[in-house]
Each structure stands twice: as structure tokens, then as C-alpha cells.
Amino acid sequence: MRPLVIPQIKKPTMMYGLGVLSHLIGYERELSEKNIMSDMKDKELQKLLEENSLLSGLAIESEILNSAKFTELTLTNEEKNISLEEGESAIITLNGRSSLNIAIATKNSNDNKKAAAIIMRVKDNSDVELKIIYENRKGNESDETKPQISVEQESISMLKMLIGENSKVTLNELFITNSNSLRRTNITLKGNGSKIYPNHAYFTYGNAKVDFKSEVTHYGENSESDMKVKGIINESSSVITQGHVTIKPSAFNSNGYQQEDLILVGEKSIARPIPNLEIGNNEVKCSHGATVSNIDEETLFYLQSRGIRKHDAISLLLSSFLSPIMGLFTGEEKEKYQHDLKIIIEESGEIGALAQEK
Amino acid sequence: MTVSDSERKIQEMLDAPSTQKFRFRAPDGLTIDTVKHISKDKNEPEWMLNKRLQALKTFLQKPMPDWGPSLKDLNLDNITYYIKPDAKQNSKNWDEVPEEIKKVYDRLGIPKAEQKALAGAGAQFESEVVYHSLKKEWEDTGVIFLDMDVALKEYPEIVKEYFSKVVPHTLHKFAALHYAVWSGGTFIYVPKGVRVPLPLQAYFRMNSMKMGQFEHTLIIVEEDAELHYIEGCSAPQYNDSSLHAGCVEIHVKKGARVRYSSVENWSRNTYNLNTKSALVDERGIMEWVGGNLGSGVTMLYPSSILLGNNSKSDHISIAFASKSQNQDVGAKVYMLADNCSATIKSKSISLEGGITTYRGIVKVGSKAKNATLNVECDALMMDNKSESNTYPIMDVQNNSATITHEATVGKISDEQIFYLTSRGIPKEQAVQMIVSGFIEPVVKELPLEYAVELNRLVALEMEGSLG
């Protein structure tokens, strides 16, 4: 097998497969052309496609990497917290039992198309725990009125990871956004027995249009991946969630699982889950699943019958939906983000309206 | 389930080319003259010629699809778009069908099945329908079961009203091609309240080399009526590739129920780029049952457009890809009204380097309340050379929808084989038993003869390929 090498960073070329898959483009073209859907006066879909192409038509990643400020970091059996601003990038090498917390914040920025990129190499025989909190909340927080977001504003963040032999990585990611964002996670399981457990949780609100993609590619034998995506799509936000697991013919005895669960809260919110599997080997166990639903009425009724206000009940149910991933955060962080989430949930006009409905 | 010599012989006969005389064979390649000739030959009304020319223009403008299986070996200039067999059109009696052609259908068992289990049958050879008949009891109830060319002459108003309304010629390149050169196919009209308990069947056979078959099937099922229609397809094995770009349009009116079953067993050199679509009105039920086995490249995504409240659609399909085959199949469901529900069940088997792909799109419109949808894809991989992919797209724009998708990929477990062999069953037979069990949910939805045929074909394909 050809050895995998991360290209040198100083003069980067096209490293990330940005833009949607070619088959998706095919579908979109097929849909957006004047076909049966438009014959039926379903203009909405076309409109949506036009809006989403705003995010998928990005060809600026090399520009981002060229202009980005780089932080280089090597961790061996240690713990560290780092924070990245918009437009900053990091190259990280991890060794042994390490854990790293990364906070990426793009708050209150009015610039367009900025990015944060992380390139990570996990050495052989390591056990790594990663926590990434990515916030892309535009608008002034102190301003009580809802932030006015122009559609053009978008931010891009990427994570590329290469995992060596017998290494295990747990990736917990929380992603909060109210404006247009593009998020790419690209994980390569290189060696024999490499393992990755990506847990992605996201909460979108406002008019955000989010293009989210998490890719895992298995090259090594006995490699394992178990991807979980949980999303709450709120207000008028629309989300494309692509999970992509590829098992190469060399990856014998590999397991690849993915599960996407999305909750559509807003009347105008839109979800487009695209869980893909590409399997080139039969000595594997693979499955994927996706669900899209609303808050379960029965559970809500049960909580209300116990005297909990509808408003609180909804907030409780949404937090509990994210809790498998939120639960992995500890201490101050957990409190901070649970508190934040609660405030966002409570402030959300949609949920308020939902609570007053009946 | 083992393969007997006689069964193998049947398959060999199906694959063997036979020599046939033609009354007319259009020159290879697609030109405006070919299109005009087809239209003139069929004595078509002007609107149909205009439609064909419009479609030809669209065909020339549209690009080839840049997703899915590679179509670079398909040479569209090397295809014969229209061949008239030397036979009387639309014979009512098998005795009137020329002996040579009848022999082909005898081998396929069509006349026998017609007597026993069908309400009517049709047979298309190359570009024309050579046999068509409907039992008298159904004719009396007002059911129309005709060759599409004849229907255009006898019921021009109905055809004009419904033709090209579900699948527009602008949908994609091969739909445009289809509308430019379509010939033959089935027309079915079931009047209000009539239920046809026995299935109607049509069998399509491409016999010539480099042939392109473009049959158009138009089915209209009026309010509260019921229909089961079966299609079978095959072609012999040649060196040059042939093309099948058929089109199926189904109108399911209020409270009607339609089941469309097809087993497509084209030869390995065939590109099967089919378009199938149904419009479903209030309380209507549309059921697609499909088996895709033969062709080298298949791109087939039957779609249901649920336009009426409480409408429902079921998609059940099986794809089988062996050496050098690429089966790219799936389903499309557009839910545009309240309380729609749909299920998609897709099974695939790949072996000896075959590629199977499930590709589907599910859309819930922003005004479609309480939509429920369940997608299940199961893939079985028999060896390490094969490939199995799943590319579903879900587009949910209404928050009252409940959508689930599930897919699994795997191989036959050693434990299962060990268990069966420990009971004295030879390994090869054990594998076939497990495969039969795997495809059983699809097979049991097919009429008996087709179920037997599907099992036979799968057994035949897998024979000798298991180590």
C-alpha cells in the first residue's frame, strides 16, 4: 500500500475535497433543471438549491490556508487547551495518552469567508481524546434584538486527521451557529487497528445555512469507526449533513457505523441528511442510519402532565437529546455550554411560539 | 435450489442471438431524418412529431450525466434506433406471429402463462409490438390494453391528455432521447371502479445487435380502480453494446391502487437507462416491485410523486451485480401533500467484482404535513473484489415529518454456513439457501413464475462463483 503523507503545509495545494460530491451535484442539477418539480410550481426547492450553492461553490480553501496564521504544536502524554480565532490554523501532532481541548470562536466578526483549519496527526499506539467547541455566532450578544445577519457572511472550518496504527481517538464536537457555515471533518484511518469515534452535535438557529460533512476513510486492517451526528435545527436554518464512510479494499475486518439523528424544531427549518457508504471489501461490518423527526408529542405531554411548563419541557428534551455528547464535557465547560444552550433555546422565538401554540 | 441442465439450456437460448428478417432497419446513429421517418412510418399526428423534434433538440443540448456509473463506452452513434420486425403488428393470436419470433416467446413461457394466470399479454420484438391480446371479460368492463402505437391512433385524446405529463422530456438526456425515438410499449386504461384481479403482462425483447429499444408505457388507473401490471425484459448477448431507454408513466387517481412489477434481465452488453415515474392522487397507492439482474450498466430510479393527501407508495427492489456489472438503482419519493407515507426496501447482492449502488432521493415539501417514510437498504457482498455503495439524500422541509433511513452491508456469516453444512447440506447449496432467504422479501411480492425465474437466475449467476 502506498504510504500516506500529509502534504507540506507551507505551500498548500487543494487538500480538502470541498464542494459536494459529484453525484450530489448530479442530483442537484437534475432537480434544479426545469423538470417535473418546476412543472408543479414547486419553486421552493429551486430557491433552496440556489441558496445552498452559495455554500457548496467554495473554491477558496487554498487561499485560506495561504493566508492563515499557523500554530504548531506537539503533545506527548499531556493535556492542553488551545483556542483559535477565525482565520487561524494549527498543525498538531499527538503522541501517547493525550487530551486536547480546542475552542474555535468566530463571534462578532463581520468579515466574510474566514476559516480555521486544523491538521492533526496521531502517532502510532496513542490514545487521544479531543474536544472541539466551534461557535459561529454572528451579531452583537449584548444587543437584545435578534442579530441581523447578511446572507453572504459565512465561515469555514476544517479538521483533517490522520490516525496511525493501534491508535484510538475520541472526537467530541459541539457546533453552535446562527450564520452560514461550512464545516468539514476528514479522518483517515491509516494503520492496522486505528479507531475513531467521532461524535458531532450541532445546534443551528437564525437564518443559518449550514453545510456539514464528516468523512472517514478506512485504509488499515481491523480499523473501526463509529460516527454519531446529532443535530437540532431551529428557526429558519437549513442544514445539509453528509456523513461519508469509505472502506477501501485494503481494510479487512473493519467496522464502520454511522448514525444521524436530526430534530427539526422550526416551522421553516430544513434538514437534508445524506449518509453515504462506500464499501470495497466484504470482510466488514457496516451500517448507517438516519432519522429526521420533531419533538415527540407523547414525551412532551408526559412531562407536562407532571407539572412541567411546556417551555421548560421542550428545553429539557432538547438538552437531553444532545446530552450523550454534552455529557462528555466536564466541569466549567459543561456548565457554560449547557447554560448557553439553554439561553439560546429559551430565546428562540420558534420554541416560544411552539410553547404558546396550544 | 440447484441449477438443472434444462434451466441452463434456457438461459443459453435466451442469450443466443437469432437471425431475423426486418421490414425496415434505420441506419445507425440518430439524425433528424430517423426521427421524421419513425413518425411518418407510424402515421402520427402532428403534435407527436413536434414533441419528437423538440425532444431531439433537448437531447442534443443536454450533457451526459457526470455522476453514477461511467457511460463512456456507450457510443450513441453506433446504435440502431428503429427496427421493424418482419411480422404483422398486434396479432391477436399467437398463430399469426411468425414461427421464429413465437419460438423466442415460447422459450420465455409467455403464451403458457397467458392462458393460466394473466388477464392479458403483450409482446414487443425490437421496436414493434407483435402480439397483443386482452381477455374478453376485461374488454367488456372498458379496460383498454393496447400497444402504444395503436392507442395513439384509436384514443388520440386520452393519449394526448396524459402523454409526457409525468416524465417530461426535459428531465434528463436519456428521457429526451426516449421521446425523440420512442416506439411501441403498452397503453393501459382502467375505468373508474374496475378492479382487474389478474395481472396484465408485457414482455420486451431486443433481438438485434446494437439495438436501441425505447418503449413507452402509459398507464392510467381511474378513481378506485385496481391494476397489477408486469413487465419482463431480455436480450441476447452480442459484442456491441445496446441501449434500453424506456419510459413508464403511471397516473394513479383518487383511491386507486397500482402495482408495477418488472424483472429486467437484459444481456451484459446492455445499457439500461430507464425512467419510471408515477403521479399519485388522494388515497392512491403505488407499488413498485423490481428485479434488476442482467444488464452491464443500469441506472434506474423509479419515482413516486405523492400529490394527494393520504397517498402512499411502496418501493421494493433487488439488484444483482456480477462480473463487470454496475447496478446503480434506487428510488425517488417526492411528498408534496399531507399525511403521505412511503416505504423503500432495497436489497442488493454483489459478487465477482460487480458494483451495486443504492442511490435515492426523498423530499418532503414545506407544506406536506405528517409525512412518514422508511428506507431500508441491505447489501450482501459475496467476495472481496466487489463493491457496494449507498448514497441516499433526504430533503426534509417540514418539521412534522418522520423520516428514517437504515442501511447495512455485510457478507454471509461463517456461522450460518457452518450451521447448514453441519446439517449435511453441501456448502454451495447452503450459500444459495442463505441468498434465497436474503432476497425472499422481494421475491414473495412477485407473481409465481417471475419468482421462480428470479430464483433461477440468481442461482445461475452464482453457480461456480463460490469458493
Could you characterize what this model shows?
The complex is a heterodimer of chains A (358) and B (467). Chain A is built from eight helices and 16 strands. Chain A has helices at residues 22-32, 36-39, 43-56, 61-67, 297-305, 310-326, 331-347, 349-356, and strands spanning 69-76, 79-85, 88-95, 97-105, 114-122, 127-136, 154-163, 168-177, 180-189, 195-204, 209-218, 224-233, 238-247, 254-264, 270-279, 284-293. In chain A, strands 1-3-5-7-9-11-13-15 form an eight-stranded parallel sheet. An eight-stranded parallel sheet of chain A has the order 2-4-6-8-10-12-14-16, with helices on one face. In chain A, helix 6 packs across helix 8. The longest helix of chain A is centred in the last third of the chain and has 17 residues, at 310-326. The N and C termini of chain A lie far apart (62 Å). Chain B has 467 residues and is an alpha/beta fold. In chain B, strands 5, 6, 8, 9, 11, 12, 14, 16, 17, 19, 21 and 23 form a twelve-stranded mixed sheet that branches. A ten-stranded mixed sheet of chain B has the order 4-3-7-10-13-15-18-20-22-24. In chain B, strand 3 and strand 4 (128-134) form a beta hairpin. Chain B is globular. The model of chain B has no long low-confidence stretch (mean pLDDT 85). The interface between A and B is large, with 53 and 51 residues.
